[in-house]
Amino acid sequence: MHLQLAVLADAANVSVEGKLNIHGQFDTIYAASVPVTWPQFCYVARLRGGVADVGDHTFELRVLTEDGGLLATVGASGSWGVPPDEGDEVTGNIILTIRLATFPEYGTYQFELRADDRPVGEAIVLHVKPRKTAGVEGV
User: Fold this and answer.
1) Is the pLDDT higher at 78 or at 74?
2) Lower CB count within 10 Å: N or C terminus of the chain?
3) Statement: residue 102 has pLDDT above 80
4) Does residue 138 form part of some domain?
């Protein structure tokens, strides 16, 4: 199984037709100060695999600090994919809602998805940057 798409977004869902809807994709949070706690966002992934990948898996999202330290983990487990027609690939979506995530410092954080304790694709990054305020001269 491999990662076809991974993003952070304000919200996401899968329609009854199986369409992945992603709302408000972002890669940067601007904060007036740190630590900053973000109320809610989603990690959204679309996976593609073969027949051998269909079945029960344990997924884990690791949030890593700029120096590679582990900040947090979000876990989920369950059955992934449905058996495809012969010769077809399997696709599936993972939407993990993350609430009250605290980022202790400005910098870059990595979100690494793992399946059965193995990385699935490259990690995606989130930048936490100072919020710039418009200065008013002469006041």
Assistant:
1) 74
2) C
3) yes
4) no
Length of the chain: 139
CATH number, domain containing residue 62: 2.60.40.10
Rounded alpha-carbon distances, angstroms, from residue 53 to 103, 111, 112, 115: 34, 22, 19, 10
Owning domain of residue 98: 2-130
Contact 59, 115 (CB under 8 A): yes
Tokens linked to 131: 């919020």
72 within a domain of the structure (yes/no): yes
Confidence band for 76, pLDDT divided at 50, 70 and 90: confident
What is the number of structural domains in the chain? 1
Q: Is 82 helix (H, G, I), strand (E, B) or coil?
A: coil
* 121 closest CA partner among 2, 33, 22, 11: 2
Is residue 8 over pLDDT 90? yes
Cα-Cα-Cα-Cα dihedral of 98, 100, 106, 108, to 10°? -10
DSSP strands (E only) in 32-89: 36-49, 55-64, 70-80
Which three-class secondary structure state does DSSP give residue 53?
A: helix
Q: What is the pLDDT of residue 14?
A: 94
